[in-house]
Amino acid sequence: MSVKAEKIGIGENKNSKNGKFFLLEKEALCGLFLSLAGIYAVSLTSDMFQNTSPLSFLSGIGMIAAIVWAAGSVRKISKYGLGTGVPSVGMIGIGLACIVFLFSVMFGPVLGPAVAAAVSLAIGWLSGKLINRILEMNIPAMEKRMTEITAGCTLALTASAFTVAGTAAPEIIFEKYVFSGIIALGFIGCSLAVFHAYNANLGPDEKYDRTRMLTILDGSMLLLILGISALFLQTGSSILSLAGSTVTIFISIVFILISYHKYLNYVKRDAWKIAKTGLLPSEEELN
Predict the structure, then answer these.
(1) What whole-number distance in Å separates Cα of residue 89 and Cα of residue 10?
(2) pLDDT for the residue 6
């Protein structure tokens, strides 16, 4: 492992005593299992409520967890000095995720999410390998980070579809999420949430707690949009059919308020106070 990678805390040394490697692994496990748990909560209960699970808000929470996982991986790989590659690496991940999602949803409610996770992990690793081999970037962590980014984006996009559709039935997902055009909101929203936070906080004073909180805020705003979309696209006539989208909207608003307040406090903590800067120079003074 290079000295440079070790200094900035993004090396792959499993024996590192600074805890950063294990922090990443904990975040990855949380993103993977929380997103799958939320997806399967909808998948396994939708048939009980006529293809509209009142637990669809759980997949929305899982979506935020997957976004935080992918965004953390974008931050790690971008610290190697990719520069404008911050949004690029996020767009690669969400582009692959969209293909894997459309492929996996056809496997049904039980196999579909597992196929999405497995295929995205494989394709992410392969894309990282090709980037290092063909483009010769020679970044030691590229394969691992691209694997995590692709898997996180895939699970986030899948969870967003389940949040809107309220079911794992392929025909309903295509009707409510794909053919309605909501998939465009999911695509853009997930990609922005994954790369925007680090891009917005980029600089020598970038701190992970502030960056992560902005990621949660971005994901929560996307969840609000999805909750409103689910409410308007709801076709059930019972009160239970409206429960999932209503709780999703409520939870997203709570998350937005909390994450915005915390992010603002982090910004105030890290910001430099600039006082008495004076007026901008005139044209004569510049010449």
Answers:
(1) 17
(2) 35
Query: For 188, phi and psi rounded to 5 degrees?
Result: -70, -45
Question: What gap in Å lies between CA 170 and CA 287, rounded to an integer?
Answer: 66
Tell me if 278 sits within 8 A of 193, measured CB to CB: no
Nearest to 96 by CA among 30, 194, 8, 162: 194
As given in the structure block, the two tokens for residue 109 are 């409610």
- Taking Cα atoms as reference points, which of 180, 163, 181 lies closest to residue 227? 163
Give the residue carrying structure tokens 């024996």: 15
Give the list of residues 6+ apart from residue 273 with CB closer than 8 angstroms, or none. none
Q: What is the longest distance spanned by two Cα atoms in the chain?
A: 75
Measured distance CA(156)–CA(113) in Å, rounded: 11
In the 3-class helix/strand/coil scheme, how is 167-178 assigned residue by residue?
A: CCCHHHHHHHHH
Length of the chain: 287
Averaged pLDDT in 10-residue chunks for the chain of 287 residues: 37 42 68 93 82 88 95 83 67 90 90 93 90 78 88 95 90 91 92 89 81 95 94 72 88 97 91 62 62
Q: What does the alpha-carbon distance between residue 182 and residue 174 come to, in Å, rounded to a whole number?
A: 10
Closest CA to 10 of 88, 80, 71, 90: 80
Q: How far are the Cα atoms of 18, 32, 146, 204 from residue 114, in angstroms, in the given order?
A: 33, 11, 19, 39
Tokens of 60: 């929305």
Which pairs with CB-CB distance under 8 Å and at least 24 residues apart come from 55-58? Answer: 55/244, 56/162, 56/163, 56/165, 56/166, 56/230, 56/244, 56/245, 56/248, 57/163, 57/227, 57/244, 57/247, 57/248, 57/251
Domain positions in the chain = 33-269
